[in-house]
């Protein structure tokens, strides 16, 4: 039986509760993956995604289910009740695991809930049970991904409304999982006075000043990629780095190359590493003498000088249309062309 | 377009200053932005309590704050410092407005969690501190910035300025600089160990008093609101806040011959006396324009790493400096193995530990078991016996831990514990993981 739900954690929880009450066994349910673009039943995510493409023939709606005598089998044996705290702990895990890029996640979560209700109320404590092990692995992976999303989203200033002073920012980010709904409130709280949108290959989040709205990703979305402050940021990044302590393995473990495409500072990394060895040996061998030259030129190595970039006003080769003068378009409209981010 | 051209000179100037003053700030090890928890103010910024590392530089270090000096002009002549008055380094100075606008611009783009502002000493300690406070004040009051601010507390600055600093900043730090007073006399003749610790004492006292007062006001307001039904007022409480993320300090390691145990004793004393959140150990790094009295060597990164491990043992694992020193060779930590393993090998009689029965403090002493896994084991063993295989699943470094534990299905031979050589077992990969990972202990 195909489960009808919107693909969010809240949707999974409501559906799972319904099926658990009806004693539907885990193997009898098929949970579709809402983020799978091909062959997905659901175009939108949640309630904000636009028109729904529900396939009435294949979806088994809940009311019908509860009325069906065949589907409803009362418990033959009394199992120990699951303490509320145990459920709460499990649901905290489930909230994150629901956003793992793993097509079996809903099935796995339902199976654990089922087992908890059928004689294994302490299952979430058995961290080495194969199901729990899988849940814990996905949980820590999603948790890390959500944390990295908070860290690595880089906003670019798209437009500043001269009258209201309100600034519109947009970011393009490539997460491993689907963490946007887990981090939306963080961004909303931190950047309340701004208007911002975060685009990912699967889903978008957009803050309008009072609500975070989620929508499904569209094809071919990229962002304008000009923001003067990025130059300053790259300067800062280059100079806060201590070439005497190069440890690129540590850097890449925490900041995988996967994310470099959306990090403005990543453009200067190769040059920094190349300079590091020379710079260190110069520092070590050189006892003070008047008028030493700097280790790096003041411009960011590997990029044009800041002076030059300020003059660069021509539309770029990738065909990105700049939207700074086009405030009326909504966040989805800030997208276009290539920019090499996907 | 015209407008942009006019801005150009300003931007080039700002770029140059940023390059100089970030370069000058990079020897400060701290970049932590954790420890303060504050909801957004509806404008810009919050503090989540957990630090976020927004980027990593090729040295593997985290970038979470805009870490700059207000100026690298300095009237002091500390031998280990690139900004000492006798150094030929290029000098620059930000205006407080520039600092505030850089912070805001970086913050809005999600590059940083906030500002860590330090400074060379210009004119006098008071004047310098006043300038630092001015930057924080601009951010808090004019820009209504609600993100993280870490200010350097200048020793010998007036207590009125310290008070203001603590009101605006989340964290304050007065650097201890070197492990002993004698080291400081030798390399930083104008600085005074007693003055530095006096500043720490002032900060510690204010933090403690305010915390007590803030919580009593909190309670009073709660009672009041319960009685009168009025909404909860936190305005008065906000005024009472002083450096909610506490204070930290930094010690340079390897610039003087001070031994590891001397360093740890100093650190331990500071933790106890001034309730510091962190002591940062900074391996002395060769600096440009360096003084010929200093070693021109590669920074002793492994030593720094061992010191951090020992520091963690002090703070989270219930070790004392005396205990750690039982495994030290000529007052220094072993570079070949981590200090916990070294200690365990000196106390083989206390092992093996039964992971299904031992109290938490004994589990914490088992090599390879971290705080988080110890707590997981304790939770699991309430349900059923914990086996060696469970440790594997929890990703405990099993080769290191196995000789020291009894598990549900496993008992090591006592003979083995005496015979084993741990030289290869103790090799950790990746070597500097803890330096780059915001682990649970980051506070």
Description:
Chain A is 36% helix and 8% strand. In chain A, α3 (84-97) packs across α5 (130-152), α4 (105-117) packs across α5 (130-152) and α5 runs parallel beside α6 (180-190). Chain A has helices spanning 9-21, 62-67, 84-97, 105-117, 130-152, 180-190, 229-240, 248-254, 269-285, 306-311, and strands at residues 156-160, 167-172, 195-199, 203-207, 212-216. Chain A is built from 10 helices and 5 strands; from the N terminus they run αααααββαβββαααα. Chain A is of the alpha+beta class. Chain A has 3 domains: 9-148, no CATH class; 162-223 and 324-334, no CATH class; 229-311, no CATH class. Chain B is built from 17 helices and 12 strands. Helices cover 43% and strands 10% of the residues of chain B. The two termini of chain B are 46 Å apart. In chain B, β9, α8 and β10 form a beta-alpha-beta unit. In chain B, the strands form 4 sheets. Chain B has a 6-stranded parallel β-sheet. Chain B has helices spanning 2-23, 96-108, 125-142, 159-168, 181-187, 193-228, 235-240, 260-274, 301-316, 321-325, 339-346, 360-363, 371-381, 388-393, 398-401, 414-419, 433-436, and strands at residues 37-38, 47-48, 55-56, 62-63, 65-69, 114-118, 148-152, 171-173, 247-253, 278-283, 353-354, 405-406. The model of chain B is unreliable at 1-5, 229-234 and 428-443 (pLDDT under 50). Chain B has 2 domains: 2-299, TIM Barrel (Alpha-Beta Barrel); 338-436, no CATH class. The interface between A and B is large, with 79 and 85 residues.
């Amino acid at each position: 039986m195909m489960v009808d739900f919107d693909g969010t954690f809240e949707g999974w929880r409501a559906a799972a509760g319904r099926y658990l009450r009806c004693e539907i066994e885990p193997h009898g349910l098929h949970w579709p993956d809402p983020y799978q673009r091909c062959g997905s039943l659901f175009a939108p995510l949640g309630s904000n995604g636009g028109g729904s493409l529900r396939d009435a023939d294949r979806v088994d709606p809940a009311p019908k289910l509860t009325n069906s005598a065949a589907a409803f089998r009362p418990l033959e044996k009394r199992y120990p009740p699951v303490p509320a705290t145990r459920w709460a702990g499990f649901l905290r895990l489930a909230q994150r695991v629901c956003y793992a890029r793993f097509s079996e996640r809903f099935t796995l979560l339902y199976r654990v809930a089922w087992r908890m209700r059928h004689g294994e109320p302490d299952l979430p404590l058995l961290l080495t049970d194969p199901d729990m092990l899988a849940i814990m692995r996905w949980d820590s992976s999603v948790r890390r991904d959500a944390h990295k999303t908070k860290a690595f989203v880089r906003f670019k200033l798209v437009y500043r409304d001269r009258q209201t002073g309100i600034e519109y920012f947009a970011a393009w980010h490539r997460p491993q999982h689907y963490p946007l709904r887990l981090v939306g409130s963080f961004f909303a709280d931190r950047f309340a006075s701004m208007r911002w949108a975060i685009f990912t290959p699967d889903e978008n989040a957009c803050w309008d000043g009072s609500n975070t709205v989620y929508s499904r990703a569209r094809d071919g979305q990229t962002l304008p990629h000009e923001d003067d402050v990025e130059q300053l940021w790259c300067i800062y990044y280059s100079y806060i780095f201590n070439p005497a302590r190069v440890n690129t393995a540590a850097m890449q473990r925490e900041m995988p190359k996967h994310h470099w495409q959306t990090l403005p500072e990543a453009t200067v990394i190769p040059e920094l590493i190349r300079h590091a060895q020379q710079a260190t040996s110069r520092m070590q061998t050189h006892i003070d003498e008047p008028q030493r030259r700097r280790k790096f030129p003041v411009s960011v190595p590997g990029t044009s000088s800041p002076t030059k970039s300020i003059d660069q006003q021509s539309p770029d080769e990738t065909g990105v249309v700049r939207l700074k003068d086009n405030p009326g378009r909504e966040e989805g409209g800030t997208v276009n062309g290539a920019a090499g981010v996907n | 377009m015209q407008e942009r051209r006019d801005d150009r000179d300003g931007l080039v100037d700002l770029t140059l200053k940023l390059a100089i003053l970030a370069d000058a700030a990079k020897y400060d090890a701290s970049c932590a932005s954790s420890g303060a928890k504050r909801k957004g103010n509806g404008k810009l910024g919050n503090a989540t309590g957990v630090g976020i590392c927004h980027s990593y530089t090729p040295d593997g270090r985290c970038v979470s704050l805009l870490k700059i000096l207000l100026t690298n002009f300095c009237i002091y002549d500390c031998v280990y410092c690139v900004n000492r008055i006798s150094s030929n380094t290029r000098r620059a100075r930000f205006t407080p407005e520039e600092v505030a606008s850089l912070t805001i611009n970086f913050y809005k783009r999600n590059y940083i969690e906030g500002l860590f502002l330090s400074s060379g000493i210009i004119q006098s300690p008071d004047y310098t501190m006043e300038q630092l406070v001015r930057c924080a004040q601009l951010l808090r009051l004019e820009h209504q910035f609600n993100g993280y601010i870490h200010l350097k507390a200048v020793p010998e600055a007036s207590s009125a300025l310290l008070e203001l600093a603590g009101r605006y900043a989340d964290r304050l730090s007065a650097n201890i600089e070197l492990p002993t007073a004698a080291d400081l006399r030798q390399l930083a003749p104008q600085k005074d160990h007693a003055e530095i610790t006096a500043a720490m004492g002032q900060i510690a006292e204010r933090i403690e008093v305010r915390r007590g007062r803030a919580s009593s006001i909190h309670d009073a307001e709660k009672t009041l609101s319960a009685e009168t039904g009025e909404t909860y007022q936190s305005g008065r409480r906000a005024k009472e806040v002083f450096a909610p993320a506490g204070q930290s300090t930094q010690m340079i390691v390897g610039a003087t011959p001070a031994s590891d145990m001397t360093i740890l004793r100093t650190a331990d004393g500071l933790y106890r006396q001034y309730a510091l959140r962190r002591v940062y150990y900074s391996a002395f790094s060769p600096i440009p324009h360096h003084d010929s009295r200093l070693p021109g060597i590669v920074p002793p990164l492994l030593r720094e790493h061992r010191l951090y491990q020992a520091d963690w043992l002090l703070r989270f694992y219930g070790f004392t400096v005396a205990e750690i020193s039982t495994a030290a060779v000529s007052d220094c930590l072993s570079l070949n193995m981590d200090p916990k393993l070294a200690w365990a090998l000196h106390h083989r009689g206390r092992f093996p530990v039964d992971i299904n029965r031992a109290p938490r403090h004994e589990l914490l002493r088992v090599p390879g078991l971290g705080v988080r896994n110890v707590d997981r084991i304790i939770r699991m063993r309430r349900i059923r016996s914990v086996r060696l295989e469970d440790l594997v699943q929890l990703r405990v470094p099993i080769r290191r831990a196995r000789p020291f534990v009894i598990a549900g299905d496993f008992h090591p031979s006592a003979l083995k514990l005496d015979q084993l050589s741990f030289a290869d077992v103790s090799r950790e990969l990746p070597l500097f993981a803890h330096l780059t990972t915001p682990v649970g202990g980051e506070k």
